[in-house]
Write a structure and sequence with these properties.
The complex is a heterodimer of chains A (about 900) and B (about 120).
Chain A lengths: L3 H28 L8 H8 L5 H4 L1 H9 L2 H15 L1 H14 L4 H8 L4 H37 L10 H20 L10 H29 L3 H10 L12 H16 L1 H9 L6 H17 L2 H11 L9 H8 L3 H41 L11 H27 L7 H11 L3 H9 L5 H20 L8 H9 L7 E2 L2 E2 L7 H23 L4 H11 L19 H12 L1 H10 L15 H15 L1 H12 L5 H77 L5 H33 L7 E4 H18 L3 E4 L7 E4 L1 H17 L7 E9 L2 E8 L6 H4 L24 H11 L3 E4 L8 E7 L5 H7 L1
Parallel strand pairs in A: 4-6
Antiparallel strand pairs in A: 1-2, 3-5, 6-7, 7-9, 8-9
Helix pairs in contact in A: 1-10, 1-17, 2-10, 2-14, 4-15, 5-12, 5-14, 7-8, 8-9, 8-17, 8-18, 8-19, 8-21, 9-17, 9-18, 10-16, 10-17, 11-15, 12-13, 12-19, 12-23, 13-17, 16-17, 17-18, 17-28, 18-25, 21-23, 25-26, 25-27, 27-28, 29-30, 30-34, 31-32, 32-34
Chain B lengths: L3 E4 L3 H13 L4 E4 L2 H11 L3 E5 L7 H10 L7 E6 L4 H9 L4 E4 L4 H14 L3
Parallel strand pairs in B: 1-2, 1-3, 3-4, 4-5
Helix pairs in contact in B: 2-3
Classes of the chains: A mainly alpha (about 900), B alpha/beta (about 120).
């Protein structure tokens, strides 16, 4: 027969066995025979730390109360390991590359090595896991009591009340965990001994549960179908359950989150993982383990409900069923199984939490207080860390005990576990963002997690004290300050819903929303951006991308001092030697390559977390506060390089423009050259033509003897006319040249355009009379004052009128002259009734040597093709325009338009 | 029968050429532009042309081209007159199978000699 003393002593002996396993494994691991310890089987078994006493005992209880709900607890992890395998792999890959030590370290590292986020995550983990540890205490206490109740109160230990028993268990577990988990600060936070012990416990609890299951189903119940038949006969409605209700979905989601986010799961699955490929085995083996753990849950629950007396605790069926059948050995084995579940959870959880607390809370506080320089000696910081961890383990178990004390009246195991799950589930949004959302910012992660945590604390954690505190009960009934919409279990009118579903819904909604909104409205800092890339693109990028701490004036001696304090002399020496860093005194102030600092930082991060390692090294490296200057100088140099490059670009652009301008100038010169050739050719023609006549006629006059006086007269007259033509041509060429070079002195003075026009008409009268042409005068203004050289203006008028006279091919040739004021311009139009200017010449009429193909006989008075060009240039220089317009007669009409002289405008206005 | 068609837009030059050639006993006709020249060539079928290049309406070179393209006028000799005297004009005329080339200003005797040579060559 089992006595409580015997049970307790068995437990202690079992713990002793665990310690032995751990110690032996540790020795083997250090001496190199670690092959078996680093196998996928051990890894998979250790992951089953997920199955705590809550699943060992509580699954049956849950099945008895809520039917198939217990399955969700197993299905969540199954979904993660089977379906989200790739996500776990990325998590592990990154954590190995970055030497991640905990879930807090992971999030902090991803979000720019933020200490603030690490502290928050650590805090949430501590608060969330406290109920869970309490749950294990409760399980152990209850199971011991279950034995002692059956036995009666003869023994000393059995007379202890619940609280004392729980306290005793807590103290025992604390001592055990401290001995177990904090023997040293391992460089990589891997504990092969602990893992081996956990794997052993996994085997024990599985076999124990299977043994009880086989015994109950086949030994007592006579097969599964008999049990179900018996249950139905006993009035149990086994078909009533609604497995896919909202609560079921919530539990499923929570357990999926938990298997990733729970600190102990992260510790085992990610940190203790020695090979990514082990995940392949765990991917199917862990779900298979869970299936075996759950296979007898339903039959045990139904058999217990059908056969055990009314009021029996279904959470203890696994223990009480064999006892009631008199199988004490099996009951003891079941107790050991439950004890295994509880202890493995407490050990791993408290180790994981103590690492988080020491790395993210204690060390940063010490660093901020700058106390670490006094903590001298080899592994000074490491020893400090160990002390911090021991204290935090004790504090964790104390907190667990306190929670147990306050919530002791809460009846079942499972609800407490779900409170923890919902708490750590607040890490998941940030964790997923860390893995897959490059633009998630530390602000988003911090406030999302913080507010999600607040909502969780308000809607689920606090209500768990309802039975203990009347104040909380009142709060839950009426809401804070009577605001009913803030009642913890009915936020914003969301009533009539399971409190768990309610809490999960609100907390995760708030968490995700804040994460997304804040991330999108804040920007990342440099370190954050680099880390985000390293995490999100973990499989694409190499670790060489690792950001360097800005190079300061750090010496190898300083660095070694830091490394030694954390890693110990041996390991630090090995690290320095492996990297070829000479730390001898002769080389004490040599420059340290930046990538070595990065490497050292990573190595330190493996012991004290990335945020702490970063702070530690930054304080050492940047001791002379030179790094900022260094950074500024580097930025300056970069800036200068950029500016220089800009200058070069600008120069090259200017050269390109200059080359283009040269090319254009060259093209223009060539065009001018061609124009000059054309001009010379034209001039040659214009000179040779009269010369031909002169020479020819003079030869005739010289050689022919019998010319009539009329012939002699005609020939001499022709020679004279052609000579005049030649003279005029030369004058025109010189005139044009003067105009083109602008050398001619212009006497611009206010002139009355009308007077000039009258004089010009008078000059042309003789020519007109000779050609029997009448110059008609149309409407005229009284005066048109313009600023002009009167002689030049007259030249223009004469040229145009003479052209109109000499090129007029009409039968009754007429020339019409009119003038008017329009838009502040004095305008003269000279038109004729000839055949007009051929379309083909309209464009080029003002060019040199263009004659508009008049068929009128040319003679001494005819222009040589330069006249209009000269006129055009003159008018242009007077600021006016010479153009061909549609006139009142059918022929050509030239319009001279000159701006009125400003001073004369008012006179103009008076006179008109 | 017209011996020579003078195509020239300068009245004074036309006057002098007509006088010189007439004095040498040849029958002379004249045209003032390219179009009239072609019309006159077809109507009068002269033995030869004295053809100025710079002409209104149709240049002398175009007239030459048209004559060379007409199978009925293969025998007509063409002497080109140019006042520009550029190598370019000379080459172009040679290319178009002009029979002779006279640059203005010229000596009257040169013109008479050239005309005599042409008419003798194309006598047959």
């Amino acid at each position: 027969m089992l006595s409580p003393d015997f049970v307790i002593l068995t437990g202690v002996a079992y713990v002793g066995l665990l310690f032995l396993i751990a110690w032996v494994s540790e020795q083997h691991a250090h001496s190199g025979y670690a092959h078996f310890l680093r196998s996928p089987a051990i890894y998979t078994l250790s992951i089953s730390v997920y199955c705590t006493s809550w699943t060992f005992y509580g699954a049956v209880g849950t099945a008895a109360r809520n039917g198939l709900e217990f399955l969700a607890i197993y299905m969540g992890p199954t979904i993660v390991f089977v379906g989200w395998w790739f996500m776990l792999r990325k998590l592990i890959h990154i954590s190995h590359a970055q030497r991640i030590t905990s879930v807090a370290d992971f999030l902090s590292s991803r979000f720019g090595k933020s200490s603030r986020l690490a502290v928050l995550v650590t805090l949430i983990a501590v608060v969330s896991i406290t109920p869970y540890i309490a749950l294990q205490l409760k399980a152990i206490t209850t199971s011991i009591q279950a034995v002692s109740v059956a036995k009666g109160g003869e023994d000393h230990l059995a007379r202890l009340d619940e609280l004392t028993l729980a306290f005793g268990v807590a103290v025992g577990m604390a001592l055990f965990t401290i001995l177990f988990g904090t023997r040293n600060v391992d460089a990589r936070e891997q504990h092969p001994g602990v893992v081996a012990a956990i794997a052993f416990e996994a085997v024990v609890k599985l076999i124990a549960l299977l043994a009880v299951g086989v015994f109950v189903v086949f030994g007592l119940g006579g097969g599964a179908s008999d049990i179900f038949t018996k249950a139905v006969e006993a009035g149990l409605d086994i078909h009533e359950q609604q497995p896919l209700g909202s609560r079921w979905v919530a539990v499923l989601a929570l357990s999926a989150c938990a298997v990733i986010c729970l600190p102990r799961q992260f510790q085992i699955t990610v940190v203790e993982n020695s090979n990514e490929d082990h995940l392949r085995t765990a991917g199917w083996a862990f779900p298979a383990y869970l299936l075996l753990m759950s296979i007898f849950t339903m039959p045990i629950a139904y058999y217990g409900l059908a056969t055990m007396p009314e009021g029996s605790n279904p959470d203890m069926f696994v223990l009480t069923l064999p006892m009631s059948a008199g199988y004490d050995a099996l009951a003891l084995f079941a107790f050991i199984g439950g004890f295994s579940s509880a202890t493995s959870m407490i050990i791993v959880a408290s180790i994981a939490l103590s690492i988080m607390v020491s790395n993210h809370v204690v060390l940063p506080l010490l660093l901020r207080g700058a106390r670490f320089p006094e903590e001298t000696g080899e592994r000074g910081i490491a020893r400090l860390m160990l002390r911090a961890r021991r204290v935090s383990i004790a504090v964790m178990l104390l907190l667990g005990f306190l929670y147990f004390w306050f919530a002791k009246d809460s009846d079942a195991l499972a609800p407490i576990g779900l409170i923890s799950f919902a708490g750590v589930a607040q890490f998941l949004p940030a964790l997923l963002a860390a893995l897959y959302w490059r633009h998630a910012t530390v602000q988003g992660a911090f406030y999302g997690t913080l507010l999600g945590f607040f909502v969780w604390a308000w809607t689920l954690f606090m209500p768990s004290f309802e039975t203990t505190s009347p104040a909380i009960a009142v709060l839950m009934e009426h809401g804070p300050w009577g605001i009913t919409s803030l009642r913890p279990e009915a936020m914003f009118g969301l009533t009539d819903i399971d409190p768990l579903v309610h809490s999960v819904f609100w907390s995760l909604l708030v968490n995700v929303s804040v994460l997304v909104v804040v991330s999108m409205s804040t920007s990342q800092e440099a370190m954050e951006r680099i880390q985000a890339t390293l995490f999100v693109d973990a499989f694409q990028r190499r670790a060489s991308m690792q950001p360097h701490i800005a190079r300061g004036s750090v010496t190898t001696g300083d660095l070694f001092l830091v490394a030694e304090r954390v890693l110990g002399w041996k390991q630090a020496t090995a690290l320095f030697e492996a990297s070829g860093i000479d730390r001898g005194p002769s080389n004490g102030d040599a420059d340290v390559p930046p990538d070595f600092i990065t490497k050292l930082e990573k190595e330190l991060a493996g012991s004290i977390g990335s945020a702490s390692a970063h702070i530690l090294l930054t304080t050492v490296v940047a001791k002379d506060s030179i790094s900022l200057e260094e950074v500024m100088r580097m930025a300056d140099e970069t800036q200068q390089a950029i500016e220089y490059s800009h200058e070069l670009e600008e120069k090259s652009r200017e050269l390109r423009i200059a080359a283009q301008q040269l090319q254009e100038a060259n093209a223009k010169l060539q065009e001018l050259h061609r124009q000059k050739d054309d001009f010379l050719s034209q001039v040659s023609h214009e000179i040779r033509t009269p010369m031909t006549s002169i020479r020819s006629f003079s030869e005739i006059l010289m050689t022919e003897q019998d010319l009539s006086p009329e012939q002699i007269d005609r020939f001499i007259s022709t020679i004279h006319n052609e000579s005049v033509r030649l003279t005029r041509l030369i004058e025109e060429i010189l005139d044009l040249s003067a105009l083109e070079h602008g050398e001619r002195n212009w006497e611009n003075a206010p002139s009355n355009g009308e007077a000039v026009l009258d004089r010009s008409i008078a000059v042309c009268e003789a020519l007109a009379r000779r050609r029997m042409i009448s110059i008609e005068l149309g409407a005229r203004v009284c005066c048109g004052w313009v600023l002009a050289d009167a002689g030049r203006l007259s030249q223009v008028f004469i040229n145009i009128i003479a052209n109109a006279i000499s090129h007029n091919d009409a039968s009754d040739p007429r020339v019409h002259v009119t003038s008017f004021i329009e838009n502040g311009c004095y305008i003269v139009e000279i038109s004729d009734n000839g055949s007009g200017i051929n379309e083909a010449y309209r464009e080029s009429i003002f060019d040199k040597f263009v004659r508009a193909g008049s068929s009128v006989q040319s003679g001494a008075g005819v222009g040589l093709g330069l006249g209009l060009n000269i006129s055009y240039r003159i008018v242009e220089r007077l600021g006016g325009t010479l153009s061909l317009v549609k006139g009142r007669l059918n022929g050509a009409c030239f319009r001279v338009s000159l701006p009125l002289h400003a001073q004369c405008e008012h006179v103009q206005a008076l006179r008109s | 029968m017209t011996d020579i068609l003078i195509v020239e837009d300068e009245p004074a030059i036309l006057d002098s050429l007509s006088f010189i050639l007439g004095r040498n006993g040849w029958t002379v006709a004249s045209a003032r532009d390219g179009d009239l020249a072609l019309e006159a060539v077809r109507r009068l079928k002269p033995r030869m042309l004295l053809l100025d290049i710079m002409l209104p309406k149709k240049s002398g070179l175009d007239v030459l081209k048209a004559i060379r393209a007409d199978p009925g006028m293969t025998k007509t000799a063409v002497v080109v007159l140019t006042a520009r005297g550029q190598q370019y004009d000379r080459e172009l005329a040679a290319e178009l199978n002009a029979d002779g080339f006279i640059t203005k200003p010229y000596a009257n005797t040169d013109v008479v000699a050239e005309v005599r040579r042409m008419l003798a060559l194309h006598h047959a």
